[in-house]
Amino acid sequence: MLLLLVPFYPGAASGQGSVKLTFWSWRAEDKWAYDKMIQVFQQKNPGITVEFIPFKQTEYNTILSTALTGGKGPDIIHLRAYGGLETFTAPGYIAALDYETVPELKNFSLTIMEGAKGRKDGKIYGVPFASQTIVIYYNKKLFAQAGVTVPKTWDQFLGIMKTLKDKGILPLANGGKEGWTLEVLSGAILPNFYGGSTFFEAVTRGQTSFKDPAYTGALAKLLELRPYMNPNFMGVDYATMQQLFLNEQAAMFIGGSWEIGFFRAQNKNLDFDVFASPPVKAGTIPWVSSFNDGNYGINAKTPYMEQAKKFIRFTATREFGQMFADMLAQNSAVPGVVIKDPVLKHVQEMNRKATPYIMLVGFRWQAPTGSTLLQNALQAMMAGQKTPEQVGEEVTRGLSAWVDAFRGR
Amino acid sequence: MSDARRLSWQPLIQFVLVANAVLVLAPMLIMGLSAFKTTREIFQNPFGWPAVWRLENFSRVWVEARFALYFRNSVIVTAAAILIILALGAMAGYALGRFRFKGNDLLYLYFLSGLMLPIRLGIIPLFILMRDLRLLDTLWSLILIYAASGLPSAVFILTGFFRTLPTDLDSAARIDGAGEWLIFRRVMLPLVRPALVIVLIYNVIPIWNDFFFPLVFIQSDRLKTLPLGMTAFFGQYYTDWAVLFAGLTLAALPVITLYVLLSQHFIRGLTAGAVKG
Amino acid sequence: MAQPLAPAGLPARPLRPSRLSLRAGRRLWLLFFLGPATLLFALFMTYPILSALAFSFYGWEGIGRRGFVGLANFVRLFATFPYSQLLANAFWHNVLVFILTMLVQNITALGLALLLARGPWGTKVYRVIFFLPVTLSLVIVGFLWALFLNPIFGIVNKLLAEIGAAALGRAWLGDPQTALIALILVNAWRWVGFPTIVFLAGINAVPDEYLEAARIDGAGEWQTIRHVIFPLLAPAVTIIVLLTFIGSFNWFELPYVMQGVAGPPNRATDVLSLFFYRLAFGEVDTGLQDIGIGSAIAVLMFVLLVAVSAVAAVLLRRREVEMA
What we know:
The complex is a heterotrimer of chains A (409), B (277) and C (324).
Chain A: E1 19-25, H1 31-44, E2 48-54, H2 57-69, E3 76-79, H3 83-89, H4 110-114, E4 127-139, H5 140-146, H6 154-166, E5 170-172, H7 179-189, H8 191-194, H9 196-204, H10 213-223, H11 238-246, E6 250-256, H12 259-266, E7 272-275, E8 288-298, H13 305-315, H14 318-328, E9 331-332, H15 342-350, E10 354-356, H16 358-362, H17 370-382, H18 388-399
Parallel strand pairs in A: 1-2, 1-3, 5-6, 8-10
Antiparallel strand pairs in A: 3-8, 4-6, 4-7, 4-8, 4-9
Helix pairs in contact in A: 7-17, 10-18, 17-18
Chain B: H1 3-34, H2 39-44, H3 56-64, H4 67-98, H5 104-116, H6 123-132, H7 139-164, H8 168-175, H9 180-191, H10 193-209, H11 212-217, H12 226-236, H13 241-272
Helix pairs in contact in B: 1-13, 3-13, 4-7, 4-10, 4-12, 5-7, 7-10, 8-9, 10-13, 12-13
Chain C: H1 23-55, E1 58-61, E2 64-68, H2 72-79, H3 83-117, H4 123-135, H5 138-148, H6 155-162, H7 179-191, H8 193-204, H9 208-216, H10 221-232, H11 234-250, H12 253-259, H13 272-281, H14 291-323
Antiparallel strand pairs in C: 1-2
């Protein structure tokens, strides 16, 4: 009979004395590290426990949206940046922060802080946690085996992939089943061809659109990669991509800097490094797409605002940032963190010529987002159903619903 | 047709049936076998027996997937919903089947209309309703919805059964001075027990397996039902195939066990709702 | 003696007059017996559906309702890019699901039922086996087959390679041309036991005298099936067709679990329910929702399902009566 009373207890039931905060995220791969960092926090703050609950990447936004619109959701929220943040801050679901609550934020870089603010009201809504860069991972052992070296130009890149393939090694682990992995692929390859930040400025100002031959010409380069992926790459999902690279069944993996820690944790013997997608001409420094990956924020409706603020403040400290960088080998947003991982150091160097990851940074403010449009169109293009020009046209047309400058282009 | 002709078809018929049986069982067998292997072994030797029969995948699922917790939630939700369906359905079926009153037919048809209504389309208002009733993120949101959606079939089946009962039964009881409730409980209800079993079996599988309503209404991990909990678990361990297979096997076990024990009842019950009388 | 079972839809035959003392007392009892069920049903089934239909005529900001906008949401859904295209695409997929399921799943089921009806050795065992997948959760079925259909590590392609048909192996779930069909086949695998049993029950219900009469008249096996069994199977067919139709247009769990809420690749597996869900609860990449359009889709699906079900039920019922 007592069992019938159980269903009455709502989700965030408070315990006796100690407060439990729930912390939602899309980073299932990082759970082990977050659990450790949380332990450090808990030791310093007896009476507060934090539970890290990750969700599948592709379900996270929908699940979070449902929870917040229902007035529920976690206490601490792992939030995206730019448009992905705006979705939740505009309706008032996220508690605003200020320099009094988190004084450490004063030292964060201004560009990074831009990704933590609401577009409408300019208030701060979270503590930025990392910047990510899109790179090309390569297996040093397989490269040596095939006798190839890191390419310096695009043509060399195609060349080494051919060599690898001829030697029976799958050059690229990438696949197309999950649209966002194709967007990441485009983020790595395209900037060198469409002219990096110059194009980004032009397109966000409305001076050009995605029908621009610079962009569609860049898209066409993705088609050149197809022979070097698994013949059934359209069915290869994110997990399989990672497996291929981890099991050393593929020589390269084009992805984000967030993989470094994951690769290390899953396969300690994997000897890998990174290089930027090569430019057209030898000698030019290549562009890399980079973006503010997101923020830690507080649910405006949490009953434990005091404790939540304590935790949020902890995530802005150098101590947290250092643990984050050490364990997860990701670029912590906290200033002054020392990068020890050699591969991550490479990424840091590449970031000197970083350009915004175009759709995520510039075109996710309203629906249909540039990302959704691009992801679906890319799937069609890589499956051979659309041309790059059609992709550009479709993206521009879809965006013209809320990007005035694209109308009539 | 002649017996000789019948016999000559037998091998072919058996072949088709066996082939279909293999098609049905093989995936589940492979699922079960893979649960005992390591991920690497699954990639390299997908069809064979496990080299070593490891149990660690199962223990990981049990502990890390909080299997017992999700299982318990599913039991609570399903049991409570079924109880409500049976109780309210029987009461309504009794009234509709044995009393003449204005609006009897209308009410009966009203319940029946629910058989065709796609309740999931009302999910947004339901979501808002649950939020306003403060039932969001509680097991009661699920129980009440499942109960409501099970009523049409329950009313349909039970009304039919109640109608078939002899008319003199309650008159005899009434002469003895028995009240309505007693008549219902002591006299009528026991007689429709087969119908209650049918209603139970017809509803238990869809409710137990449902994934959609928990997806929308439940946010807290400790309230998730089994299908939803397993989805969350798979989202976390998406690269660890051995654990995935163990999770799938464990999640399938309760229903498969129940089914094997009660297969005849299930088949009859689930099709009874479909084939009218 | 028992009252004959009233055919569905016809009023119950009047029973003996109530002997309760007060009219009011009787009313109270009726209220007591009928009230809870009616209330529960009205609150959690009728009200939401009617509300959902009403919601489509309002503007929305997130989950906050704004002013009355008439048919604006419908105009956006049916006439503006990209929604009109997404709608047509999703709708077409639902139609495909219905057609292919009828052809693959239900005809196979009929065939199996006919075979089982002969009562071959092992009938009881086969029945139990064939029905087993129907009891499995769609989440389990979806995940299981997603793993099996993985182009590199999954057993389907590995099996094809082993029997020397490696060329047939492909990206089942990733190729826009095969993805939906793969899902339909998985769905059929899971469901085929159900119509099989329903048809089997129907076939077994055919009175022996009819079969005997046909045999005496010299009818061959196939002729017996066509002219005696099929007409009498009409009620079962009605039910299966209706249920398949409803199931095809309500299809959600399997595509959600196997492909995700976006219906990839490039919306090749997008169906009305996924489209509805995305708009009602937030897109994959940002969580942006559009309840106005979501509700409009709900209205569309509602009208479709109820209207077609009702019409089909009437038509098929008429055929049933003719055939009897």
